[in-house]
Amino acid sequence: MRGMSPLPPSGRLRTLSLATLANSVGLGLWLTGAALYLTRDVGLSAVQVGAGLSVAGLVGLTASVPLGGLADRRDPRTLRAVLQVLQAAVAAAYLLVGSFPVFLVVAVLELLLTSGNLAVRAALIAAVAGPQARVHAFATLRAVANLGIALGAGLAGFALAADTHLAYQILVAGNAVSYLVSAALLLRLPAFPPPPRPPTTATLRRGRPLHDSRFLAVSGASAVLGLHQTVLTLVVPLWAVTLVGAPPPVVSAVLLTNTLLTVLLAVRLSRGADTAAPAARKMRQAGLVLAAAMLLYAATASLPTASAVTLLLVATAVYTVGDLWHSTAGAGLAYDLAPPDAVGAYQGADGMLAGLARAVAPALLTLVVLDGGVPGWLAVGGLFAVVGLASPALARWALATRPACSSMVSMTDQQSITIRPGGPDDAATVLRLLDGATAWLAARGRTGQWGTEPASTDPRRIAQADGWASGGGLHLAMRDDHPVGALVVGAASDDVPPATEPELYVRLLVTDREHAGLGIGARLLEHAAELARSRGLGLLRVDCYGGDDRALVRFYEGCGFTATDAFTVTRPGRDPWPGQLLVRRLG
User: Rounded to 5 degrees, what are φ and ψ at 233?
Assistant: First the structure.
């Protein structure tokens, strides 16, 4: 059973998961019972409830960026806990609602806090998990949230079955208590004070996501693809019952299929979306899979009821894969395209665009699909396919103006690294760094890249290091006057296809593994880009080991490079060496 649980092992992410579970159980209670409580117990009309929630939802979006920006300047753990306590008070205030004006005030306050808290939550996930694991953490919390909502919905069924004033009050109170439990669990996490932020003009400009047109274009594409959520929760139920003729319990089966698959697959399908380039490719896959699901939903129109119900469930399984890919890809893009000192504000902008799409989705999709029938499904599927296919190009456009690997390391760590030119006396330093990297790789069974023998005992490698050190292309990363990385730039090797335009080529990039996590490789690659620009060059190329799990390829892709040609180096007496060429256009 342990392998079936979405909860991670003991640690910070588990604590955050438990806080999410508590919060989402309350959310499940409220989502299931809110409409009936407000209409049957409070006495509001369905039109009043719908209009009030629409107005509150649009007003609430205005809190996303300001509260996300506040999370960049304050401890996101404490800020989220405070917001949870405030949300508990607002959730309890629904017990006082007796008229439409009071309902509107409470709903606006609720959705202001909810919208802003989602941005703070994204910043907290980044702080807890770090740049390398935040997308995995995001997927884990999604699985946990789905489990909690399902549990809450099940508990709400008892209140709905009783259908009494007391039962509805208990439901509302349970939602309020869940926020308090979640806040208490959050305070078990350590504080995450932000690093010092130098008040430079560039930093302030990067911290304003609503003026970052390239980021908004990528997030806007993700928001358009996010229309699929309304397809599942609104369009499919209405289509299944009114047009396909399925019995109403089929709607529960469809939603349960999605929930169970999300709990089981969310973490597994999150792999490979940690940085923008692979995340954009996953977004492309999501768009195509979601388009296929729309075609399957459309096909149910011409089938007998029993066959149509089966196909509805199959389509929902396909849909869920696309949904999960879209979710993790969207998170990877929003995180990786955000400056390290403005993660919260950028997540707020991303959430605001997603919220706007959700606001227009019900009216738009019911008109297109329920009135349009099969052609409407085809139109929605075509939209998803086009947006998915466009995502990699949009991501490359956004990456062109960003520092390489900017999201992989904090500003403080980047500032601790300086770079100086190397010289003939630094050949021994290069060999030391190569020896350390070779030993680190060998200890992890990754011997295909550089083998197992130290470079300092290999005459070929010694001669190579001497040539690099005396050739004018060596640059050393320094931390406290200690060399922690080496970069060699120059002409391309004979093993790769020649460039069709003037370029700068990265011949070597190696870092000291004892100083891992400081973004040394990122800093050296950005230095290579600066050297190329200073020489009037618009192309930077590099090759790397392309075997095993291609982790090194993904690192370079996260630094703004695009994989192009694969090649193989033949080595007498040894296995061929698989290589991968990557290019980066310098904006």
Answer: -85, -20
Residue 360 CA: distances (Å) to CA of 31, 224, 329, 370, 387: 19, 10, 22, 15, 17
Nearby residues of 35 by Cβ (< 8 Å), 6 or more positions away? 46, 49
The H or E element that residue 83 is part of is helix 76-93
Q: Measured in Å, how far apart are the chain's first and last C-alpha atoms?
A: 51
| CA dist., res. 355 & res. 349, Å (int) | 10
**Token pair of 78, please?**
């404490």
CA distances from 579 to 16, 542, 576 (A): 40, 10, 9
Per-residue pLDDT, 402 = 65
- Answer for the pair 437, 513: CB distance below 8 angstroms, yes or no: yes
User: Distances from the Cα of 418 to the Cαs of 95, 475, 520, in angstroms?
Assistant: 59, 10, 9
pLDDT at res. 5: 64
Determine the Cα–Cα distance for residues 290 and 251; give it in Å rounded to an integer: 19
Query: What is the C-alpha to C-alpha distance for residues 25 and 29, in angstroms, rounded to an integer?
Result: 6
**Total number of residues shown for the chain:** 587
Encoding tokens for residue 67? 């509260």
116: which 2 tokens?
């802003």
CA-based nearest residue to 324, from 370, 348, 293: 293
pLDDT for 189 equals 93
What tokens were used for 501? 């335009």
> Comparing C-alpha atoms, which of 319, 384, 156 is closest to residue 311?
319
What is the pLDDT, as a whole number, of residue 151?
A: 92
Return the number of other C-beta atoms located less than 10 Å from residue 443's C-beta.
Answer: 11
Of 40, 267, 271, which Cα lies nearest the Cα of 159? 40
Q: What integer pLDDT is reported at residue 178 of this predicted model?
A: 96
The three-state secondary structure class of 297 is helix
Nearest residue to 529 via CA among 414, 418, 374, 403 = 403
Distance (Å, whole) CA 158 – CA 168: 10
The 3-state DSSP composition of the chain as helix, strand, coil percent (nearest 5) reads 70, 10, 20
Which stretches of the chain drop beneath a pLDDT of 70? Answer: 1-5, 132, 195-207, 401-416, 517, 587
From 11, 26, 323, 31, select the one nearest 137 (Cα to Cα): 11
Strand ranges of the sheet holding 562-571, from the earlier edge strand across to the other edge: 418-421, 474-479, 482-490, 504-511, 539-545, 574-585, 562-571
Q: Residue 324 in contact with residue 270, Cβ under 8 Å?
A: yes
